[in-house]
Amino acid sequence: MSLSDYATASNYLIAAATVVLALAALAYVAQWGFARTLAPERETVSLPHSLRSREVPPGSTTGTVVELVEATESAERSDVAGGIGLSLTALAWLLLLLGVASRGMAAERVPWGNMYEFGCAAILMVLTAYLVLVKVWSIDWVGPMVTGFGTIVLGASMLVYVPAGPLVPALHSYWLVIHVLGAMISGAAFLVGAAASVLYLVKSKAEATTPDDERTGFLWRIPPSAKIDQVAYRVHAFAFPIWTFAALIAGPIWAQYAWGRYWGWDPKEVWAFITWVVYAGYLHARATAGWKGKAAAILALVGFATFVFNFTGVNLFVGGMHSYAK
Fold it and tell me: Does any domain span residue 7?
């Protein structure tokens, strides 16, 4: 295949991955919808797709039996929709992996030298992290947010599409691989942490205000808020040192190589530092009495907002010495 063939294949593969990921998001939403009338499991629930069929208790009335049968059917539909969502997510990951790899072969370099490439490669990293954590921590309850956000980023990346080509001289360094790869890995974890933080805020409020007899729907079939909060903390604790290395160590070293100075308060550098400060505050808040729970979750979401703005707003609207990364 020629370089142009690789570029064309990459475009088709990434477009297909976007469509499949959107379908995965719809399947996850359907999973939530089918479970809207279900009561909580009597056992501790760890996975949305682990819903169990209810046995009809001896002496149950006909109405009770009908309700249990309907609940079982709804649970089965929710299971199927969740399984489809997970399968489509895995397929989208494979298509995106092939698309990003083809882009790299077309450009004859690492495929994250501009916003379009970074967006595609970053979502590939997000899906990788999500699929791994589904196996490790059973976090498919954040599936709708992860796939929905991924679809938006892939679609938006196409709006800043640039043909595959060589890098500008400042990007010709192995620090491109180290710096940007670290940013993508930490960004993927930040997204999972943000999704978990949103669910924590919703679930913790519901736990405090919803009577026991009104606790129906998918929200009550996911882990309790304390466990969700624990997942959020773990992924943030994993991401923070990687972000520290990528933004405050590898980035300045690359800046010295490219521009002859380690730090120049360029807008991109400033917002990278702001993101670091916010997440440092989040981790400190988790260890400080009175700042756990809601306050820490909100701080995590502020940190993710600064990360997203650094990627989009700074590049598109602020500029600076990193403007060639558009």
Answer: no
Cα 254 from chain centroid (whole Å): 27
Q: What is the pLDDT of residues 187-217, one digit of tens each?
A: 999 999 999 999 999 999 999 999 988 888 8
Residue 219 vs residues 19, 24, 254, 326: alpha-carbon distances, Å: 27, 19, 45, 39
Q: Let me know if residue 198 belongs to a domain.
A: yes
Q: What are the two backbone dihedrals, phi and then psi, of residue 112, each rounded to the nearest 5 degrees?
A: -150, 55
pLDDT in tens, 162-178: 999 888 776 778 888 89
Q: Give which of 86, 74, 70, 71 is closest to 23, Cα–Cα.
A: 86
- Is 68 within a domain? no
- Tell me which residue range forms the domain holding 303: 168-326
Q: Domain count for the chain, please give it.
A: 1
